[in-house]
Amino acid sequence: MTMNLVLQGPQASSDTLERLAALARPARIARLGEHALRCEDLPFAAPLREQVEAAAFEAGVDACFIEAGRRLTDFGLVAMDMDSTLITIECIDEIADMQGLKPQVAAITEAAMRGELDFAASLARRVALLEGLEASALQRVYDERLRISPGGEAMLAAVRAAGLKTLLVSGGFTFFTDRLKDRLGLDHTHANLLEVEDGRLTGRVLGGIVDAQEKMRTVERVCAGLGIAPQQAIVVGDGANDLQMMGIAGLSVAFRAKPVVRAQASVALNFSGLDGLLNILA
């Protein structure tokens, strides 16, 4: 199989990129910008991939192998996780901080994202700890702490320009996905609904929990509605609960992800912003 190798990193020097490219012995090299290049027409082999990826990771560079000729316009949908993917924070951890419980909740979140805990059970445990918190804390988190991940808005602009639809599917909460949908012009969102009574969180989620299987089903439903196969979707995630939806995608992207996710994704962006996707499919 003939592959291309995209090397990129926000701090990558030309010398570093060229040194890494030499490991792959490409037929040609194409410059993609000041901090990115593409090695073209490589005879792909697993040992080569392992060697290049290890050297690149040590150098702070993303090394992404992809079939030659693949372009953004080959796809019809970009589906994204929210927490620690499209945005830089884990919303539930920041909400818990308003209760003085961030360390306890963050530890559960981290274990769930590594795949060590059942996601639905872990979410129920974390949400229960929020009981009694004023619902206004959610707005404070949105206003004061929520930030779009580097390159996120540039990636979304390019995706829209190429005619792709967007889906934000999250094990987090509709309070945030609804606002991000309006703010970023997203086409579809799906997340958990926190129950609020008398202006305070009850510590419960209304309806079914958006776990790994529901994330996958959501990608399937949206693709069906668009008249495309899941193989025409790009799915971006960082945690173990993203693996099922990443597994049905035509291209899965691990973004600043846990090791279990990096190991199974088509490509990984460990250092670049979300707009690194654009170089991979240039």
Automatic annotation (TrEMBL):
Pathway given in the UniProt record: Amino-acid biosynthesis; L-serine biosynthesis; L-serine from 3-phospho-D-glycerate: step 3/3
Keyword Magnesium attributed: yes
GO MF annotations, alphabetized: hydrolase activity
Catalytic activity: O-phospho-L-serine + H2O = L-serine + phosphate; O-phospho-D-serine + H2O = D-serine + phosphate
Enzyme Commission code: 3.1.3.3
Cofactor: Mg(2+)
Keywords: Amino-acid biosynthesis, Hydrolase, Magnesium, Metal-binding, Serine biosynthesis
Highest taxon above the source species: Bacteria
Species of origin: Massilia hydrophila
Keyword Protein transport attached: no
EC class: hydrolase
Family statement: Belongs to the HAD-like hydrolase superfamily. SerB family.
Protein name, UniProt field: Phosphoserine phosphatase
